[in-house]
Design a protein that fits this description.
This is Transglycosylase domain-containing protein. By secondary structure, the chain is an alpha+beta fold. The protein is built from 23 helices and 22 strands. A hairpin with a 2-residue loop joins strand 21 and strand 22. The protein is elongated.
Length: about 750
């Protein structure tokens, strides 16, 4: 095959003094030459067509240093193992080195844009004279005279412009701009070799179809790297830079036809210059355009893990650590060329997705969401939901982050139900109660007065007009253990009254609990029944702290950021001791009995130490399960995003199964179990630290007698649907109304609802 004739890339470049002497001669020649030098190929200005300038006073030929902010580059987001999962960018660009660009691409761009590039200095005098003649003949701009160096300068100035006014100034048709560009070009030619300038130009130029730089353009147009470009492909890209918007192949047939014609012009020019033969030019011109329109690697919409991706994006956009102003943070993310390594584990993510898919279908109205968090670090290992992320309702897509709070792209969340009873349990243990301490409770609970409960501001929060019930009654003695295992509403209302509402609220806050919508926690008497709206990440992270023996770590999604220059910043967990370790051990011991003696006994455990709590809200509006091992914690929610209070989980078909009612052990519990079995398959089990029996009494749940079978209010096995009858959550009534953990009547409005 014939070797294409290339320019001698290493040949000596003419001395700057030679070019400057020619410019000086032209400048001394008078008005016409002055206009030529200062306003190369500009449109007519004023009646005469060219302005008058003083060659001696106005033309400053001294080089001026060009500030070169790095061009916007793609930021790549990776999972915990370094595999890309998303990309963010303002301009899709991947900067490559000179040797990573096909030689034929360099030849093509020089042939059409500046064929004497390796022979002249910052300005091509011969090219400028030629352009002037053409423009004078045409009465306007028919041909440009800018060198590749000047074009690079122009692109740098345009890239640095952060306002529309600044962009317009970088493009304005004025002699002052052309003079300034020339001075910058002189400095650039002193600073870099010709090879370096050419590489910089090819990396900054816009080629159309949202592709900036030759690497992105090669991938976008033809699905290849820049070093793999063929002759027709290189000619196409070289032709595109002149007017990338007019020849944008992504816009339609007319634009592609224009691009094809422009490609052929480039091929003819290359043949005219002897860089390829006429036969090669004709052969290349006979080929089709070959535009593939390879999809741009996009943001969260196209990520395999969209909800986690949204979380990461918001972590940067709303964190002052990444820029004092919002605009600075956007620039940092979208233009920085960063490599962001995250905490997500692809295996654990797959486990969560598979478990959710098994129990809830994409087309179901209710939506399931799950988050997995590592105890002791707060690292988010998975964020999954039953519906895809996006804006197409016809495809059942969700336009917000189902798994996280509003600060991370989420919505208002769902009431967390009896998962909040755990915080009351912890507050009681912290206050000195033993696991077998308890109360005689009735079938209903009514506050004695408004001052029975006080919020953390000292205000009254009781509601003597409202009675919390257990449906079928079940008065009797309940302890921290049996009350938790059966999730008895009246017991926890009594317990919350005993330890104090504010103490329960403080305990929850110490574990990172905050409302999903960003508002303040509602501190009503029914706080322990979970009337506040939550998101899976927040709940999972709170339970992870118990699994870490009371060590709370803020949710963590980013572990490392490498900037475009290779500087690595590592982010460590932000942790604090939120609970007395022995209190956390005691809570874990009690909560582990939920699997063997409580509301999850119909679902069963996972073959290793595990603890958790079911959650079902008033009238089955939403359902939850939150659980943990020392190695991994998770929370699962299910509710109807159309409005959980108006579209409750009664008489619904989910995952092709009919449910008379959906409780925490109906769907969320099995999802959690299936997820954990797969996610922890290759993780050696870690045991809980045994309870301090001398401090908390008893010898732990393992030696307690099993409660009678009517103890669990929501002990519904996943396979029996509505035929699996649940006993009342207080321990009586057997075949009643399936028992409500959170019988507040609140409909999301607290006890006065």
């Amino acid at each position: 095959m014939r070797r294409h004739r290339l320019w001698g890339m290493q040949e000596p470049v003419e001395k700057q003094s030679s070019a400057l002497s020619k410019i000086a001669l032209l400048a001394g020649a008078g008005v016409a030459a002055g206009a030529l030098v200062a306003g190369i190929a500009l449109p007519a200005v004023g009646g005469a067509g060219f302005g008058f300038i003083s060659a001696t006073n106005e033309i400053n030929l001294a080089p001026e240093e060009l500030v070169e902010p790095p061009p916007a580059e793609v930021t790549v987001v990776e999972d915990s193992k370094g595999k890309p999962i998303a990309r963010f960018y303002e301009q899709y660009r991947e900067v490559v080195g000179f040797d990573e660009i096909a030689p034929i691409m360099k030849t093509a761009i020089i042939s059409i844009e500046d064929y004497r590039f390796y022979e002249h200095g910052p300005i091509d005098i011969e090219g400028t004279i030629r352009a002037l003649a053409k423009n004078l003949q045409a009465g306007g701009v028919a041909q440009g005279g800018s060198s590749i160096t000047q074009q690079y300068v122009k692109q740098v100035l345009l890239n640095a412009a952060d306002t529309e006014a600044a962009k317009n100034k970088a493009l304005e048709a004025s002699y002052a701009r052309k003079l300034k560009e020339l001075r910058y070009a002189m400095a650039v030619e002193k600073k870099y070799t010709k090879d370096e300038i050419l590489a910089k130009y090819l990396n900054i130029a816009y080629f159309g179809a949202s592709a900036y730089g030759v690497e992105a353009a090669a991938k976008r147009f033809f699905g290849v790297r820049a070093d793999q470009l063929t002759l027709p492909q290189a000619a196409t890209l070289a032709g595109a830079v002149q007017d990338p918007n007019a020849t944008d192949p992504n816009l339609g047939r007319k634009q592609r036809e224009k691009l094809l014609k422009r490609r052929n012009v480039v091929l003819d020019r290359m043949a005219e210059l002897g860089k390829i033969s006429k036969e090669e030019a004709e052969e290349a011109k006979a080929t089709k355009l070959g535009y593939k329109g390879t999809g741009l690697p996009g943001g969260c919409e196209s990520s395999k893990y969209p909800y986690f991706c949204i979380y990461v994006r918001n972590e940067i956009l709303k964190n002052p650590d990444f820029g004092k102003k919002a605009a600075d943070r956007v620039k940092f993310l979208n233009r920085g060329g960063l490599t962001i390594k995250t905490t997500i584990d692809s295996g654990m993510q797959a486990a969560a997705e598979k478990a959710i898919k098994k129990w809830v279908h994409t087309s179901d109205n209710p939506v399931a969401a799950e988050a997995l968090v590592q105890p002791g670090t707060g690292a988010i290992k998975a964020m999954a939901a039953s519906r895809p992320y996006g804006g197409d309702a016809g495809k059942h897509e969700m336009a917000y982050n189902l798994v996280a709070d509003a600060a991370h792209g989420g919505g208002i969340g769902f009431q967390a139900g009896s998962t909040f009873k755990t915080f009351t349990l912890i507050a009681a243990l912290n206050k000195g109660m033993k696991v077998n301490d308890g109360f005689n409770v009735g079938a209903g609970y009514t506050a004695a007065g408004y001052s029975t409960f006080k919020n953390c501001a000292g205000g009254t929060a009781g509601d003597p007009s409202h009675t919390v019930t257990n449906d079928e009654g079940a008065p009797g003695w309940r302890t921290l253990q049996t009350g938790t295992w059966g999730s008895v509403n009246t017991f926890f209302m009594t317990l919350e009254q005993h330890v104090g509402l504010c103490e329960v609220v403080k305990t929850a806050k110490s574990l990172g609990i905050h409302r999903s919508d960003g508002n303040k926690l509602q501190e009503y008497e029914t706080f322990t029944l979970g009337t506040n709206e939550m998101d899976p990440v927040t709940v999972a992270n709170a339970y992870a702290a118990i699994g870490a023996r009371g060590k709370y770590c803020a949710p963590m999604a980013i572990s490392q950021i490498t900037d475009r220059d290779g500087k690595v910043t590592t982010y460590k967990p932000k942790c604090r001791q939120a609970l007395d370790p022995e209190v956390a051990d005691a809570a874990a011991d009690v909560l582990s009995g939920v699997f063997t003696r409580g509301t999850m006994r119909g679902v069963g455990g996972i073959g290793r130490d595990a603890a958790g709590k079911t959650g079902t809200t008033d009238s089955y509006a939403t359902a939850w399960f939150a659980g943990f091992t020392p190695d991994l914690a998770g929370a699962v929610s299910i509710g109807d995003p159309r409005g959980s209070q108006t579209h409750k989980l009664n008489g619904v078909t989910i995952g092709a199964r009919y449910y008379g009612v959906v409780a925490g052990a109906s769907i969320p519990g099995p999802i959690w179990k299936d997820t954990m079995l797969a996610a922890l398959k290759d993780v050696p089990p870690t045991k809980f630290t045994p309870i301090n029996a001398a401090r908390f009494g008893g010898c732990g749940q393992s030696c307690q007698p099993a409660p009678p079978p009517d103890e669990g209010e929501e002990d519904r096995g996943p396979g029996d649907n509505d035929d699996w009858r649940s006993e009342d959550n207080g321990g009586g009534g057997g075949w009643g109304n399936h028992g409500r953990e959170n019988d507040t009547g609140g409909n999301g409005r607290g006890p006065f609802g």
